[in-house]
## 1
Amino acid sequence: MNLLFDSEGKVNYDKINKETTVKDVLEAIDIFLNNNPIPCDTCKESCCKKAWSVEMDNVCVNRISNWDERCASDYVKKKLVKKRNYYREFDQYVLDKEKNCHFITEENYCTIYEQRPIICRLYICIDKSYRYNVVRELIGSTYLKALIFEEEMRTSKLSDELIKQYKRNPAVFAKGYDISLNDIFNYSEEEGWLYEDERDELY
Ligand code: SF4
Ligand code: SF4
């Protein structure tokens, strides 16, 4: 998978297959941004200093908590708030902030760059194609929902049936971003986020 500018000048990808993983997407973005650098250090309108939400995923929270379940749960309680995702109709966790992200410095450097949330990794502040945006959104939603599920499993006594249902999300307890897009798309279909005919257009 490679990212490129399409005929409309939008960021798009060439092709994916059944084996393509989320990690492949993130690597393709890094290569693209390396070849088409964005001047974040001199940006006057830093996306990290705006009032909009910074959505947090389970892998990011687990990484900054050194994979310690109690620390992860403390972090969720002290630093995050639940916010409704009205587009997908589920609750997600976002940083409890008014403006600047907790992790941005005056000079626009991210202090958790290597461990930053997946939505930050998937974000490119250039016009993006519809299919790139769909893939980005489905990956993000799967990992955002995984944090909600993991936190509930850490803090509440849930029925075996509910735990089984939560574990259908392929990102729950994932150690990283090695999940295949195929698994993300299967889960998205189960959740009603993606229809079969739309899925074909993503390959
Ligand atoms: S990614 Fe954010 S900080 Fe970097 S140039 Fe774009 S808007 Fe500015
Ligand atoms: S985590 Fe880092 S990249 Fe993401 S919004 Fe905060 S400062 Fe920006």
## 2
Amino acid sequence: MQIKVTPLGAGQDVGKSCILVTIGGKNIMLDCGMHPGYNDERRFPDFRYISKEGNFTGLIDLVIISHFHLDHCGSLPYFTEVLGYDGPMYATHPTKAIMPILLEDYRKISVERRGVEEKDMFSSQQIKDCMMKVTPCALEETIMIEEDFEIRPYYAGHVLGAAMFYIRVGQQSILYTGDYNMTPDRHLGSARCDKLRPDLLITESTYATTIRESKRWRERDMLNQVSECVRNGGKVLIPVFALGRAQELCLLLDAFWERTGLKVPIYFSAGLTEKANLYYKMYISWTNQKIKDTFVKRNVFDFQHIQPFDRAFIDRPGPMVLFATPGMLHGGLSMEVFKKWAPSDKNLVIMPGYCVAGTLGHKVLSNGGKPQIIDMPRDEGGGKLHVRCKIKHLSFSAHADAKGIMTLIKQAISVDPVNVMLVHGERHKMEALKERIKTEFGLPCYDPANGATTYITTFHGVPVQLSTRSATCSRFPGWAVESDP
Ligand SMILES: [Zn+2]
């Protein structure tokens, strides 16, 4: 018996997660994401690989969306409404609720600002139509897709609603992690699953070689920097994405202001963030135990010291702290404010996340935070900007680090033979982790590139079939021409 896996995206890369798995004769698509680094057709997975003629409903038996980040769900409306897939799709309740907000934001930016034609993208209506077809599921609920074909989501931490999915068809099974976090943070718990003993564990590996310093140290560092800046009369800009780190850092600052009695105003840019906080309040059961316990007294997402921001405040004198979107300074309010505040050496910009090459955030971070003159992007008015403010990069990313990945492997797997596959990471780092998994656990480990098919033989008391290629190729014409590493 074999399991066949082909990443269409996230193979030795971060972006457009989309992994095709054939297990027990069922074809499953794990995530259907977009690539944030591209504006052309490379932003979506190459679905022609599955079929050049369409008929995706006949070819794919199930689509699973692990969480609402666009690199995991950003091409779903295109796959269903433009390419016509109409089969079963599952996501957790919060993912289903929050996904359309991010998809609409992504559509708007692509069509209205980046000049992508709507026909190459999807419309607002198509997002709505697509979402209607997604079946929501609860944590640890076993869902029978068909007879002897079941799925079960497990808590993944990472962002609200994120889930790992256990999938079993007949005797074969896999666990797909999506993105996950093995250490709890201020608003979410850590990933957890049963001893599932899957034949194959497909895990993200964003931080394949990193062991992160303690979160407490990072938090203290951030609070020191912020309070020093505002006490000296400076302004602090924290570019964030609307969901995830924004809530985490709002909780951190709100509690600190409460403790220290600081009176300096904290703002967050309205719109997306407000809507996002609403969802965090609504899905309080998905957050960590401490937040659930406090909930009886008050909902911590009703921030005491944080108010909505008005554009007129940009030029206000005196200290303030502002959370503004987007997180990589690539447009919107965060860039607008950056232009105004960056020339003063009194001010501070804290970058709490990863910045993709090509964004202003990446440029700002690239010289280690020293003063510099930056050429502003032409579609943002161009010109030169003298950056004299302090720039601080603090990683608050919610991915498992190398230690976390090894812990999950230990937790999920207890008997041989099982296999591990790495996706959603950088090639050379994955290579290092792969070797470590092989030597420390003695497990076969794979890290296929996009488009490369891996065949994994499983043993369940039946004779081993060395190749089922001809049998499956008739269903996936595109797969026949691909290599078999
Ligand atoms: Zn994610």
## 3
Amino acid sequence: MKKILKYKFKNITSNIIIESNYISKYLNNLSKKNTKIFCIVDLKVKYVVKNIINKKNFEFIFLNSNENIKNINSYYKICEKLLSKNIDRNSIIIVIGGGTIGDLGGFIASTILRGIDFILIPTTLLSQVDSSIGGKNGINSVYGKNLIGTFNHPKEVIIDTNVLKTLPLREIKSGYAEILKHSLIKDRKFFEWLEKNYIKLFNLDDKVLRTAIEKSILIKLWFVKKDIYEKLIDDNSRAMLNFGHTFGHSLETYYKYNKRINHGEAISIGMIIEGYISNKLGFLTNKNFDKILNHFKNAKLRTTDKNINNKAVLNIILKDKKNLNGKFNIILLKNIGKSFFARNLNFNKIKNIVEKI
Ligand SMILES: NC(=O)c1ccc[n+]([C@@H]2O[C@H](COP(=O)([O-])OP(=O)(O)OC[C@H]3O[C@@H](n4cnc5c(N)ncnc54)[C@H](O)[C@@H]3O)[C@@H](O)[C@H]2O)c1
Ligand SMILES: [Zn+2]
């Protein structure tokens, strides 16, 4: 059954629709309208638009999508292409694909002609539970990930679980890592539910998938609503969603976003390292840390990397955008389901902990 989650921020309303086998029907309805629709589509999911490819109000741009498309050159090329096809302020952009094309397409829609309406159709588990929610769009800079972008919400997010059938298990696990992150920062019961249901989720059991996706989105929205522009520095801060990402991002940067590690794998390792730091600093009990580690191992998620205590990885963290005035800030756990903002930590102390891993 179709599930609609509505979210309102100030004067913005967005609908998140969770349904299986829905994309074709949804796009077909749009093809009956007069609006000009520009679809930016990941080539891997070209099949989802096959029935509307000849509709006269639709134009398509197909991309081979990965982290490397989140740059200023792709941004500029696509904007020029859209302008050459006479996009106007009443047009709608629909972005169909994972988090990389979603971040890029959302940024294009937010800036072209000073911003036009857009719809996201996320096709990876990661983009369904995380990147399509919360209004962050953007591209990378040589100075780091997601440093150029906007806060701007899509009119609708269409989450179709059926499209996950073509997604490799490695990518399902990448999305699962973000689902686990949501449980670890906010909801112990959800974590324990995942401990029982992860195999069904990996097997794409529709009921389990939909429950996990919805629960995950609601946790993300809880933080986003409290702190849309990520300004808070307390435990309600949107920054809680960065748990696992301090070490995760530095590993991704270290590996230059190549195929050896994907986002979910990097943050899986990051969550274990940051959980371990929480434990060694006395915030998280041994029992809770072991419970987390065991689940990651059972689910065969990455828990470490041979370069995790490499100097270069630690140096990237020192330059991290969260470390204002040379102090080290990081999201840690007090419990499973309870995260907090650990501020002004001594970096050497953290370094010593990590170097002993
Ligand atoms: N905006 C946010 O709030 C936010 C939050 C989390 C992550 N992100 C960003 O999301 C990005 C990662 O997203 P991702 O993991 O979706 O990566 P991705 O877009 O690179 O997709 C992963 C791979 O799956 C392929 N793919 C997509 N859908 C498919 C399908 N249904 N079947 C088969 N293959 C398919 C893609 O072509 C790609 O090869 C990162 O850039 C990260 O920074 C953004
Ligand atoms: Zn992430």
